[in-house]
Amino acid sequence: MNLLPLPALTDNYIWMLHDGRRAIVVDPGEAPPVMRVLQQLGLQLQSILVTHHHGDHVGGVDALREATGAAVYGPARERIPQPAVPLVQGDRVSALGLDFTVMDVPGHTAGHIAFFCAAVDGAPLLFCGDTLFSGGCGRLFEGTPAQMLKSLDSLAALPGNTRVCCTHEYTLANLRFARAVEPANVALIDYQGLCETLRADHLPTLPSSMALEREINPFLRVRVPAVAQSARVHEPQMTSEADAVAVLAALREWKNNFR
Ligand code: ZN
Ligand code: FE
Questions:
Q1: How many Å apart are CA 12 and CA 167, to the nearest integer?
Q2: In what order do the strands lie in the sheet with 123-129?
Q3: Which of 61, 67, 113, 160 has its CA 20 to 30 A from that of 127?
Q4: What is the CATH number of the domain that holds 124?
Q5: Does 53 participate in catalysis according to the annotation?
Q6: 202 is annotated as an active-site residue
Q7: What is the pLDDT of residue 8?
Q8: Phi then psi dihedrals of residue 85, to 5 deg
Q9: DSSP 8-state symbol, 192
Q10: Residue 57 C-alpha to ligand 1 middle, in angstroms?
Q11: What is the pLDDT, as a whole number, of residue 239?
């Protein structure tokens, strides 16, 4: 199975999985990058998976469906281009002979879902949309910090070797913030150096891995004392360092204003 991040729009990736004959894509914000690769590689688009309703994730759905006849799967609780198979927590999607499980991960949007497959060529794979980024998480447009914490906790509980396919190349900016939160995190310093090299060569920093994110992503580390202390220094209205929801809320607020 081949896994490709197709650059799209400003800083989106449209993830494609293909077996040399058939393909699926996740969150096509526009159609042309997908059509080009389908034609170049002679692939038939079988399915389109959608994580949430934002335009940079669904803008290419109608054109791709019309051009290829691909089936569309997406969150039951959001308005996305129709017809689409509506999905909720625990539903299964079968595509390319793979079995994806749907996870409800509200926070960025109210009905955001993620797709997890336990084994793609032997290792797990996660399509998490705008919920989890490498070194960061999505902005809370429609959900609460408590919802986002629960969603991130459910993702962080996936196996360490899970390949994490995020939909934006935000890694370097996220890591600058992560360094401000945890200046002494050695894994973070190493990873930042690696990502700077990748981006200088115009290569994606993704997919990440869940084991790495647990080591370096402040939004998965709200129960680490150094992270909670740092959050309180920058957001003094935060009352308790032991309250993981409050730490997440403070980190998100700090990040929103971080330059
Ligand atoms: Zn979004
Ligand atoms: Fe997005």
A1: 5
A2: 92-95, 98-104, 113-120, 123-129, 163-166, 208-209
A3: 67
A4: 3.60.15.10
A5: no
A6: no
A7: 98
A8: -75, 120
A9: H
A10: 7
A11: 80
Ligand of minimum distance to the alpha carbon of 108: 1
Q: Greatest CA separation found in the chain?
A: 57
* Number of domains comprising the chain: 1
Enumerate the β-bridge partners of residue 13: 7
| Residue ranges with strand state E in the chain | 2-8, 12-18, 22-26, 44-49, 71-75, 85-87, 92-95, 98-104, 113-120, 123-129, 132-133, 136-137, 163-166, 208-209
pLDDT recorded at residue 52 = 98
Active site residue 234: no
Task: Kindly list the averaged pLDDT for each block of 10 residues, start to end, along the chain of length 259.
Answer: 98 98 98 98 98 98 98 98 98 97 98 98 98 98 98 98 98 98 98 98 98 98 97 89 95 95
Q: What is the bridge-based pairing of β-strands 208-209 and 123-129?
A: unpaired
201 flagged as catalytic = no
Nearest CA to 231 among 217, 256, 249, 214?
A: 249
Domain that holds residue 237: 2-256
The helix, strand and coil proportions of the chain, stated in percent and rounded to the nearest 5, come to 35, 25, 35
> Which ligand is closest in space to the CA of residue 52?
1
Active site residue 168: yes
Q: Which pLDDT belongs to residue 259?
A: 86
CA distances from 84 to 5, 31, 62, 69, 106 (A): 23, 17, 11, 12, 19
User: Cα of 27 to ligand 1 centre, how many Å?
Assistant: 10
Question: Please, are residues 210 and 160 in contact by the beta-carbon 8 Å criterion?
Answer: yes
Report residue 45 as tokens: 């688009």
Q: Which residue has the tokens 């009352």?
A: 239
Query: How high is the pLDDT of residue 178?
Result: 98
Annotated active-site residue 52? The verdict is yes
